[in-house]
Amino acid sequence: MPVTMVLGAQWGDEGKGRAVDALASKADIVARFAGGDNAGHTVNVGSEIFKLHLLPSGILHNQAICVLGNGMVINPIKLLEEIDNIRALGVEITPERLAISTRAHIISPAHIGLDTAKEKARGDKALGTTLRGIGPTYLDKTGRKGIRTAEMLDIEKFAELLQETIASANEVIIEHGVELIDVEKNVQAYVDAAERLRPFIQDTMIILNERLEKDKFVLIEGAQGTLLDVDHGSYPYVTSSSTTSGGALAGLGIGPKYVDRVIGVAKAFCTRVGAGPLPTELNDEIAERLRGTGENFWDEFGTTTGRPRRCGWLDAVMLRYAVRLNGLTELTVTKLDILSGFDELKIAVGYTLDGKRIDTPPTTNDELERCLPIYETLAGWQEDVSQITVYDDLPQSARDYVNRIAELAHVPVKMISVGPERDQLIHVE
Ligand code: IMP
C-alpha cells in the first residue's frame, strides 16, 4: 500500500522532520496537508541546517515531488523566501518538483493583521498564536470568502480580491490599535509573488491520485500535532486546522484505502508552546534541563517564533489518545538523548480528576486543568546515548523506558532519534 503518514502525536514540535527525512529518500511524493508557516521543521544534514516552514522536508530529496495540499494556508511571500533560501543551498526547485494546490488558501497581510488584533483583544486569554495569520485565513475559508491559490492565475482579479480583503481588515484592525496595512505596497508585493508562483500552482489532487493508482509511494508530512487539532485538541487552545489522519485525507483529496502506515512522532518527554493545558508541565530545574539553554538549535525554543517551550514528563494518557484518534500503527520517539543523566524518569500513566482515576483525557479545559497526573517512576540512565545506532546497544534502562512507552501506547516504537544529525536515528527491528 502506497501511503505512509507521519503525524505529531503531541503538541507539535515533536521532530516529525526527522522521521520524514528518514523515509523521504524512497518517496515519489512528499505532501503537506494542513497549516502554513506556523509550522517549523529543522533538518540537519552534515554541517547544513535547513529551516523549513512551508516546504515539506522531502524537498531535500531530489527524486520526490513535493506537494502543498489543498488543506494548507500559504503565505506566498514566505514561501518564496523559503524557496530562494533552499535554492541558495543548491537544492533544485522546479514546477516538476514542487506542486502547490490550486485549492489551498492564501494568507494575506489582512489575515496577519487580524491575527495580531484578535490576540491583542483577547488580553490575558490570548491563545499564544504564532501570529502568522493562520486562524483568520481558515476563518475566511470556512466563511466562504477566502482567496485560493487558483486566483493567482488571474492577476487582475487577484489584485482586486486582495485589495478588498485588506481594506476591510483595516477597518477592524484600526479599532484594536494595530498598525494599518499599506494596501498598495502589499498588493504589489503579492502580485509580484503570484507572477513567480504561478508555474507551481497545479491540481495536486490529480497529481496524487494518478501516482497512487500506479502504486507510487506517497509520504504525508503532518504539521503541528494531534493535541492542537481544531476538533480534538484542547479547544480553543488549538490551531485552526485538522492535524490528524482524517485531516490528512481531506487536506490532500485522497481516499483512506491507500493508507497502510500511520507513524506518530512523540518526544521522549512533553513540550508545548502557547497557552492551554499541559497536565505534566514542570516549572523546576527538570524543565530547564529538558528545555536546554537555547544555545543549540535543537533546544526547546520555537523554530518559528523563538519562544521557550513549556516542558514536562511524558504523558501516556495523551499518547494513547493520539494513537486512537489517528489510528497510529507505530511510534517514532525523538530526543531520547536528552533524558541521559537523570536518576529517575516519570511517565504519566493516568490522571486523577476530582478524586477519581481516569485513563482518557477529559473533553473540557476546566476538567483538564484539574487533572493530576498519576506517575510511574522508571530508572534513568547515565550514559550518553547520542552515538548509539543499534537498539540493543542502548542501556537497559533506556530500552525499558522505550518499551514502557510502547506498552502504554499500545503500538510499537519503530524509530528512536538520539541527536539532531540525520544518522542519529535507531531503527528498532
Ligand atoms: P496558530 O496556529 O498560529 O493559530 O497558533 C495556535 C496554537 O498552536 C498556539 O498555541 C501555537 O503556539 C500552536 N502552534 C501552531 N503551530 C505550531 C507548531 O508548528 N508547533 C507547535 N505549536 C504550534
- How many domains in all? 3
What molecules are bound to this protein?
A: inosinic acid
Per CATH, the superfamily of the largest domain is Adenylosuccinate Synthetase, subunit A, domain 1
How far apart are the first and last residues' alpha carbons, in Å?
20 Å
Give me the CATH fold name of the largest domain: Adenylosuccinate Synthetase, Chain A, domain 1
Q: What's this, in brief?
A:
The chain has 429 residues and is of the alpha/beta class. It has twelve helices and 20 strands.
Overview of this structure, please?
- With 429 residues, the chain is of the alpha/beta class.
- It folds into 3 domains: 3-102 and 201-263, Adenylosuccinate Synthetase, subunit A, domain 1 (Adenylosuccinate Synthetase, Chain A, domain 1, 3-Layer(aba) Sandwich); 105-197, Adenylosuccinate Synthetase, subunit A, domain 2 (Orthogonal Bundle), CATH 1.10.300.10; 266-427, Adenylosuccinate Synthetase, Chain A, domain 3.
- It has 12 helices and 20 strands.
- The strands form 5 sheets. It has a 10-stranded mixed sheet, sandwiched between helices. Strands 14, 16, 17 and 18 form a 4-stranded mixed sheet that branches.
- Strand 3 and strand 4 (48-52) form a beta hairpin.
- Helix 3 crosses helix 4 (134-142).
- The site of inosinic acid has 19 residues, from helix 4.
- Inosinic acid binds next to helix 4.
